[in-house]
Design a protein that fits this description.
The protein contains one helix and two strands; from the N terminus they run ββα. By secondary structure, the protein is α+β, with helices and mostly antiparallel strands. It has one domain. It has a two-stranded antiparallel ribbon. A hairpin with a 2-residue loop joins strand 1 and strand 2. The longest helix is centred in the last third of the chain and has 16 residues. It comes from Mesorhizobium opportunistum.
Length: 51
């Protein structure tokens, strides 16, 4: 069995990870701080190509 890790910080996930949708893909994170960081990074990346 492989251990799942947080998409933001690579910490090991427990039995109840937080699921976050980023760029149309659902990823799992360990805590609200990582969820917020991914949401901010996703929003920044989405707006980067707009003029």
């Amino acid at each position: 069995m492989t251990d799942k890790t947080c998409a933001a910080c690579d910490c090991q996930l427990d039995a109840n990870p937080i699921r976050v949708k980023v760029g149309g893909k659902t990823v799992e994170v360990c805590c609200e701080e990582c969820a917020q960081a991914l949401n901010e990074a996703g929003a920044s990346a989405a707006g980067a190509g707009e003029d």
